[in-house]
């Protein structure tokens, strides 16, 4: 299957070309319910067609000709394996519940975005007060205060579940209020705070910012906006490894706490969440000398080392989340010398390896621009992505189905 366009919608001509059929056949597919058409918003009243529907037609065709082949690749950037109405990946942007995530990063708060992902506008889950930490929880926090942010969250999440008598309540309102509490708990654990009354981004930034080092930009709203954008753009990305893990756990009807714990476990791997920390470490090597930095990067490549934070298999024209964060850093920190050094370094890497920065590089650059402490980058990603995991869990609960794929056995056959 060679079809790899990332546009969410295709014209009739594009569909016909991909499927290798006549235009009239496309109309026949629509009448038989195999394709869904909708107005393209053009004056000529032309129709447009969902890319996923076209891919499903290709999938069925290939499955008929080569049974079993499509299942082999479905779990590795292959065809969709389940239905979801949360996030749509476009060619140059992504959409949360039909809303452009890049625009949300400019205008929305992280809490508003989480509310959108959870379809909880009528509940307003973040209007309740911040949760308080019990004396027992505070004792544990004091014992593990020197552990990395992910460790603190993984250790404390099961304890929170034990303390919550409504952890297994299945009604929609409780789910969403529990979700807001979990995000706020994670924010307290990440910021070493015991209480807050502001937004999540304000809570994190007030703890992570060093007033002695961090004097620019003077406008605090710019710093908050950049952190909000980092949280929003990291909130969900369809069925990545941690989100799929979260859905699998939710399908067993485990609690939201266990869903987040499972997501954190998947996030801790070097091929997923830890890429953000690796990208931050890479940026820390920038010297400001273009010649010296190029020699450093070339040496890494000669040694067969990877360059973290560049190249995303789902975006031919570059990860829009990374691009957006880089653009915001340029806008908010035009005069900071250290920021210019890091921007130059990112551009140098992109030109050297002929690839685009991902959201990991964008988060790394934002972390450097905001002068955040070690571990804050993965903290942003963990808190943000938890909102997505919770959305996937709620959607999976509503489906009532258990995720249980089959394996194709390729081992030794039993002997007679």
From TrEMBL:
Keywords: Transferase. Pathway: Carbohydrate metabolism; tricarboxylic acid cycle; isocitrate from oxaloacetate: step 1/2. GO terms for biological process: carbohydrate metabolic process; tricarboxylic acid cycle. InterPro entries: Citrate_synth-like_lrg_a-sub, Citrate_synth-like_sm_a-sub, Citrate_synthase, Citrate_synthase_sf, HTH_17. Its EC number is 2.3.3.16. CDD domains: citrate_synt_like_2 (cd06102). GO terms for cellular component: cytosol. The keyword Transferase applies. Signal peptide: none annotated. One of its GO terms (molecular function) is citrate synthase activity. It holds the Pfam family HTH_17. Residues 9-61 form the Helix-turn-helix domain. Belongs to the citrate synthase family. PANTHER family: CITRATE SYNTHASE, CITRATE SYNTHASE, PEROXISOMAL. This is citrate synthase (unknown stereospecificity). It comes from Leptospira semungkisensis.
């Amino acid at each position: 299957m060679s079809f790899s366009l990332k546009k969410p919608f295709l014209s009739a001509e594009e569909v016909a070309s991909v499927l290798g059929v006549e235009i009239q056949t496309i109309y026949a597919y629509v009448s038989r319910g195999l394709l869904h058409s909708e107005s393209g918003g053009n004056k000529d009243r032309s129709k447009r067609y969902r890319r996923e529907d076209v891919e499903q037609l290709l999938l069925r065709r290939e499955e008929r000709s080569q049974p079993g082949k499509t299942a082999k690749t479905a779990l590795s950037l292959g065809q969709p394996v389940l239905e979801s109405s949360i996030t749509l990946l476009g060619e140059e942007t992504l959409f949360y519940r039909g809303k452009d995530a890049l625009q949300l990063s400019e205008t929305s708060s992280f809490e508003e975005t989480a509310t959108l992902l959870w379809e909880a506008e009528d509940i307003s889950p973040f209007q309740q007060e911040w949760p308080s930490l019990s004396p027992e929880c505070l004792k544990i926090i004091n014992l593990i205060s020197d552990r990395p942010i992910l460790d603190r969250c993984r250790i404390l999440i099961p304890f929170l579940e034990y303390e919550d008598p409504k952890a297994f309540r299945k009604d929609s309102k409780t789910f969403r209020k529990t979700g807001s509490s979990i995000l706020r708990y994670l924010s307290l654990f990440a910021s070493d705070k015991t209480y807050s009354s502001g937004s999540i981004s304000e809570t994190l930034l007030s703890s992570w910012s060093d007033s002695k080092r961090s004097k620019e930009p003077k406008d605090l709203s710019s710093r908050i906006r950049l952190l909000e954008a980092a949280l929003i753009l990291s909130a969900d990305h369809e069925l990545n490894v941690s989100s799929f893990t979260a859905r699998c756990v939710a399908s067993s009807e485990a609690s939201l706490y266990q869903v987040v714990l499972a997501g954190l476990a998947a996030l801790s791997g070097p091929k997923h969440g830890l890429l953000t920390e690796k990208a931050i470490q890479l940026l820390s090597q920038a010297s400001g000398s273009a010649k010296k930095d190029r020699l450093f990067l070339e040496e890494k490549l000669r040694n067969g080392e990877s360059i973290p934070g560049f190249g995303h298999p789902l975006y031919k024209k570059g990860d829009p989340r990374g691009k957006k964060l880089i653009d915001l850093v340029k806008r908010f920190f035009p005069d900071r010398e250290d920021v210019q050094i890091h921007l130059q370094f990112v551009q140098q890497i992109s030109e050297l390896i002929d690839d685009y920065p991902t959201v990991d590089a964008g988060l790394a650059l934002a972390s450097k621009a905001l002068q955040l402490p070690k571990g804050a980058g993965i903290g942003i990603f963990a808190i943000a992505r938890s909102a997505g995991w919770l959305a996937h869990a709620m959607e999976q609960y509503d489906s009532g189905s258990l995720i249980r794929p089959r394996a194709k056995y390729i081992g030794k056959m039993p002997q007679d």
